[in-house]
Amino acid sequence: MSGVRKWTWGVAGALTGVVLGAGAAVAAPAAGLEADLAFHGTAVMNGDRVEVKLTPHNDGPSALPDATVRLRWSVALAEEQRLPARCVREDERTVLCGTGALAANGVGEQLDVPVRLKEKPSEVTVEIDTAWGGGATDKDRTNDRTQVLVLDTGDAYAF
User: Partner of 125 for a Cys bridge, out of 10, 74, 150, 153, CB 3.0 to 4.6 A?
Assistant: First the structure.
């Protein structure tokens, strides 16, 4: 495994609350923490560029110091990306972003995640889901994942 790939996996592990070694071990939920995370926003496509703006929501009951959202595209991303400081590339189609602190029954800061695609398709699907819930138990996982079909029209598609 190359040094860059190891670094990417190490950072991705830190963002998602897992330790990667001989086998992947997922962090156990923190005792007593319970949260219900969801992500709402828009996605716009222009040529080989897609911009996702999303806002994390925590319907509680516990506040979280951080969480991680996963954005996975149906097509490969360009090799070089200018991602926000809280984001890291997981693989050729996936980006992970830290949400920052989320108050119980609160809304977090909007994340603006612009990416360039490897090619210029006429449409792309973006899957948005919780990669790590801040160590909390989430009893309602039904609202953790959404898919958005984004056409290359310059129009904003809401989720």
Answer: 74
